[in-house]
């Protein structure tokens, strides 16, 4: 089994139905598959084959699902990259992957040209609306013209161990690493999501709104989730895909399409909760929100559910495990702060620094094992061996399990602050800061300190119209946690810097908070 076969079997099993709406364009599952077959023929004619790599540098686009299917069908590897990547970042990825093709938005073609200059293995740049220029180096082609090829139905021999997607992890230090995800990994991920969502028992319409970029594992998982739709939901299920997250547009789409589910990171929930125009939109159709990507503060989750009828299902995962790890099921009782139980095809354990398992409520490193664990890091055998030991993926995240096997994520090990020998977890303090009535968003980082080794600095976004002082924030923290954990400084800011999917950019905050040299 591979992703190309899964798409064909899904189309045959479900019949033709509306599957995707993006930017006002509507596509059935058969139309997406037909375009994928045409791109398969075109890509093959251009020389893409089993083992080839193609970088995809696009905002969420109507052609992106067919593009991914076309690459999968050749046996090639898709390398999705965040479309905002600078030329230097892109050049590193092109050189590291030895990619033969780049599929990019038209406005990113100049960046691709700069990045690919002198890299002879890059043979072609494909872009919507581009002018054909076969004499350029690399050659440039209009992407839409490739849809004129006759659909190609035959498939090469593609095994579950073949790499389907390579995603570059941002990391906290050093160069990004290419995470190798196989067809088997992504199939297992789709099965895990389907089981956790309990789709077989879902009744009524299931219209999902997503603003997740397909260049992120969250977006890739949503793409494959469409293929697992149960037969009884075929005419009731489709995806409304945004090009990017924009809060008013997001709320308008929920209201217009009566969306029942969405995938979000905690930042999206905070933005929606405190948006000044939120009350002007009807979001009552939302019944379920899948939230992951970062620890979800309990107060934020409870405040959101007090305002809206949606049930938040917190999940945990990372790119190296195909985005999987643990999830709350729809029938699970709500456990504040918990990211649920292990997925159906994943083992989850908490290990100490000697790789020995820990008992309930003992904090240690979250480790995962199963079919969703990556094949490894591209060209990084030593780092692969360090990360996957005895079959267990060491995540670098700190957490604990309760007596019932529910996971509680504490923080990233690399984000942990050590002040005077005491461990302080930013996520714990951020949850405490969210409990202050004047705080809309908060982030905590550690900065060097000559006396304590590290000190705690908080960044706070106040709610509209709220007045609050630094001393009040610090005293609030001291009433809820030990005083040594309290921030030494509080910076009030208009916004907290975040990545394209809403993760806090702690490196940027550390630079802002660092004491002068």
Describe the structure.
The structure is a single chain. The protein has 517 residues and is α/β, with parallel strands linked by helices. It has 3 domains: 3-17 and 27-158, Rossmann fold, CATH 3.40.50; 183-412, Rossmann fold; 416-513, GMP Synthetase, Chain A, domain 3 (2-Layer Sandwich). It is 29% helix and 26% strand. The strands form 6 sheets. Strands 2-1-11-10-12-13-14-15-16 form a 9-stranded mixed β-sheet, sandwiched between helices. A 5-stranded parallel β-sheet has the order 4-3-5-6-7, with helices on both faces. A hairpin with a 3-residue loop joins strand 25 (439-449) and strand 26 (453-462). Helix 4 crosses helix 5 (109-116) and helix 6 crosses helix 7. The longest helix is centred in the N-terminal third of the chain and has 18 residues, at 29-46. The protein is globular, with a radius of gyration of 23 Å. The termini are far apart. The model has no long low-confidence stretch (mean pLDDT 92).
Radius of gyration: 23 Å
> Main beta sheet: strand number and arrangement?
9 strands, mixed
Number of strands: 27
Could you name the CATH topology of the largest domain? Rossmann fold
- What's the architecture of the largest domain, going by CATH? 3-Layer(aba) Sandwich
Task: Write down the CATH class of the largest domain.
Answer: Alpha Beta
Number of domains: 3
Helicity range of the residues?
A: 25-40%
Overall mean confidence score, pLDDT:
92
Query: Strands across the major sheet, in which order?
Result: 2-1-11-10-12-13-14-15-16
CATH superfamily grouping of the largest domain? ANL, N-terminal domain
Distance between the termini: 57 Å
Give the overall shape, derived from the CA principal axes: globular
